[in-house]
Design a protein that fits this description.
single chain
């Protein structure tokens, strides 16, 4: 079976002139050759769009829009997709050469599957490997995602290959910024069936100035995502919900302490974690 009418790759692009060519080359070098590559330029003010235009490949389509955020850019790509499957790739991440082929084969071999994902190796700004690997699992995915205790679907927007119909059903929630991926993953695992392809296929670039470093936005966003999950009845019990919120507060405490250098804020969220779920005391003592 050829993949000519089966896969679209969507790359949201905003001021990524340092990395976008390498990212697109990692797609163009795929062993699975027959795909459409849609780059949604979200109002870049650097040379990003020019670099894309210089790459001469008939499979690339550049869509220029006014800046409205990465989630809107992804949704534009979803709406433009006319293929059975869709994959997302952030503008500074990379793929292994067999990523699409192996994930496509996994989906095609099981009609019950709606999405697949793989493991991730972290890289630095120079594309050198760093000592952090994110290993997924497809066992109790929603439970582990809500508990934030396993990677499960690390960085879903550079990892997933999924049915386009599923992406259209879910879309990315424009009210979130740093946590839109997490909200998408919660709803995906709550409603659809996925599979873990046990191999590193994604190289996730860790940048010191990345959006996730803004801890104040991260705090607001992730708390709202968990509140939305509660509204959607994704927690199977009150005790489980308390445990999940406690873990979230503990992660925020660690972020404020380590990256934000705000020990008072860290202590505040550590206390919130303990009040909500006292059994996390051991975890708190280990962490701090």
């Amino acid at each position: 079976m050829t993949g000519l009418s089966h896969i679209t790759v969507v790359v949201p692009l905003y001021n990524a002139e340092l990395y976008i060519e390498e990212t697109l080359r990692s797609v163009l070098k795929q062993s699975f050759k027959e795909f459409k590559l849609i780059v949604v330029n979200d109002g870049s003010t650097d040379r990003s769009a020019y670099i894309v235009e210089k790459i001469k490949d008939a499979r690339i389509e550049l869509i220029n829009i006014e800046n409205a955020g990465v989630s809107n850019a992804r949704n534009i790509g979803i709406q433009a997709c006319q293929t059975k499957y869709i994959a997302f790739l952030d503008a500074d991440d990379l793929w292994s050469e067999d990523k699409l082929e192996e994930q496509f084969n996994a989906l095609e071999s099981n009609s019950r599957l709606d999405f697949v994902f793989s493991d991730i190796q972290c890289i630095d700004e120079h594309s050198d490997l760093i000592s952090r690997t994110l290993i997924g699992t497809d066992k109790d995915m929603l439970k582990h995602l809500l508990l934030w205790d396993r990677n499960v679907i690390p960085n879903p927007c550079s990892n997933l290959l999924m049915k386009t119909s599923v992406a259209r059903d879910l879309l990315f929630d424009l009210s979130f910024s740093t946590a839109a991926d997490q909200d998408f993953a919660f709803r995906l695992c709550a409603q659809y069936t996925g599979c873990h392809v046990k191999k590193i296929h994604v190289f996730y670039r860790v940048l010191a100035q990345s959006m996730s470093r803004n801890i104040a936005i991260m705090q607001k966003d992730h708390i709202r995502v968990y509140q939305k999950a509660d509204h959607l009845d994704l927690f199977y019990s009150k005790r489980f919900k308390n445990q999940c919120f406690s873990n979230l507060y503990l992660i925020l405490a660690g972020s404020w302490y380590k990256n934000g250098k705000k020990p008072i804020k860290a202590f505040y969220f550590m206390l919130k974690s303990l009040v909500v779920y006292p059994k996390n005391l051991k975890k708190i003592l280990q962490k701090f």
